Amino acid sequence: MKKKHSIFLVEDDINFGTVLRSYLEMNQFDVEWIDDGQRAIEEFTKGKYDLCILDIMLPHADGYTIAKHVRANDPIVPFIFLTAKTLKEDMIEGFRLGADDYITKPFDSEVLLYKIKAIIRRRQELFQGKDNPLSIGKYEYIPTTRILKLENSEERLSPKEGKLLYMLAKNVNQVVVRDIVLREIWGDSNYFTARSMDVYITKLRKFLKEDSSLKIENIHGSGYMLVDKD
Fold it and tell me: Is 88 helix (H, G, I), strand (E, B) or coil?
């Protein structure tokens, strides 16, 4: 029998939480539902989850605080903010914390379901069987923890930084097509996600600057290439 994926749901609205948990369980997910922010922080480390769904406005600790705790304790679990907060600055803060999606209420439950499945599938495809360190020039990169090491120093990358570096490193000296990367990591290919990717490329160049043999080149009209001169 196929193992069900597990979801950590944090939602303080009892009626909404009851309905959402039932809907997800009806669609073959195991759901751990917590209705208090502080208790969510305490309970998260007791289990192992495939995805977290977080409300933001919660008693005792907000969703942003929970997200920081989740990320500190599990560097690869994906999470979604599902909230009534619709302001642009709230969304930006959510994505800054590493959210895979930010969904505002009211929402289409079927769309949410397919987004959950897509996020879990992408995470499995990207990390399944990839616990071994990856050599990148003088660096060593561990995909599952997103740790980039150089001699006695190390840097923990954000989820998107880690996924992007992994795709470039697995295709070293080959062009990584921009549209494929955008759809695989950002879930969409448009002007705004492309600009976001450019920012992440700049960050990766800084992370790799200590090895002069490595260079991330912009291949005009196509994408990027991680060049290893050695």
Answer: helix
